[in-house]
Amino acid sequence: MEFSLNNGKGYVKVESYDDETTHQLARVYEQSLRLLGEDPTREGLEKTPIRVAKAMQFLTQGYNMKPDEIIRSAMFREDYQQMVVVKDIELYSMCEHHMLPFFGKAHVAYIPRHHITGLSKIARVVEAFARRLQVQERLTTQIKDCIQTTLNPLGVAVVIEAQHMCMQMRGVQKQHSVTTTSDFTGAFLKNLATRDEFFNIIGSRLH
Ligand SMILES: Nc1nc2c(ncn2[C@@H]2O[C@H](COP(=O)(O)OP(=O)(O)OP(=O)(O)O)[C@@H](O)[C@H]2O)c(=O)[nH]1
Ligand SMILES: [Zn+2]
């Protein structure tokens, strides 16, 4: 399996996973299958430990990404000082409590001071922090902090709406619950009208 990694300096095509890590993880997953009462030697499961080992590395590839550098790689001086909103950024992450997926959408806005960044870089920052073991609150704050410290804008707003598999497939089993988290800096914190404008643009019922 191949996938692209952005190491902050550019996109690196990863031809193969780290062999040693993949091998060791696969052994653990083979043992897990046995403990769960399965037969890891049966045809359908033969390659499963190795597949899972690769899938888990894919789902945690954010640890190899440098979100600050992603933004710095496309920062442009510009005098635009109005709100920039990138909404409906799909995200897939995994809760650190159960290692089960949570997924949904991120809505990110900032008001440039002197610099703008490439729009795709906002989505890449979301990706870099989402592809780790996370809690939704920390994911929200990390995205906000990263944009604030690199671009030094007049304000940043991040809203994430997500469904947690650990609440749907197991545990309390609430299939339709959606968790919303938000974090703000600068103008979005101080100015209610600015925050309302953001909520209007993303179509949120939060305000
Ligand atoms: N705050 C927060 N909690 C999360 C997130 N993802 C999962 N959780 C919660 O983490 C908690 C872990 O609680 P525990 O009581 O230790 O785990 P548990 O016995 O599996 O809990 P239940 O899910 O209630 O069965 C649960 O309430 C989960 O719903 C997240 O992103 N943010
Ligand atoms: Zn969980």
UniProtKB/TrEMBL annotation:
Single GO MF descriptor: GTP binding
Keywords: GTP-binding, Hydrolase, Metal-binding, Nucleotide-binding, One-carbon metabolism, Zinc
Catalyzed chemical reaction(s): GTP + H2O = 7,8-dihydroneopterin 3'-triphosphate + formate + H(+)
Positions of the GTP cyclohydrolase I domain: 29-202
PROSITE patterns referenced in this protein's UniProt entry, alphabetically: GTP_CYCLOHYDROL_1_1, GTP_CYCLOHYDROL_1_2
Keyword Zinc included in the entry's annotation: yes
Pathway info: Cofactor biosynthesis; 7,8-dihydroneopterin triphosphate biosynthesis; 7,8-dihydroneopterin triphosphate from GTP: step 1/1
Binding site residues for Zn(2+): 95, 98, 166
GO cellular component annotations of the record: cytoplasm
Listed GO biological process terms: one-carbon metabolic process; tetrahydrobiopterin biosynthetic process; tetrahydrofolate biosynthetic process
EC number: 3.5.4.16
Domain of life: Bacteria
Pfam families documented for this protein: GTP_cyclohydroI
Family: Belongs to the GTP cyclohydrolase I family.
Quaternary structure note: Homopolymer.
PANTHER family in the cross-refs: GTP CYCLOHYDROLASE 1 (PTHR11109:SF7), GTP CYCLOHYDROLASE I (PTHR11109)
Listed NCBIfam families: folE, PRK09347.1-2, PRK09347.1-3
Protein name from the UniProt record: GTP cyclohydrolase 1
Species, as recorded: Geofilum rubicundum JCM 15548
Gene field: folE
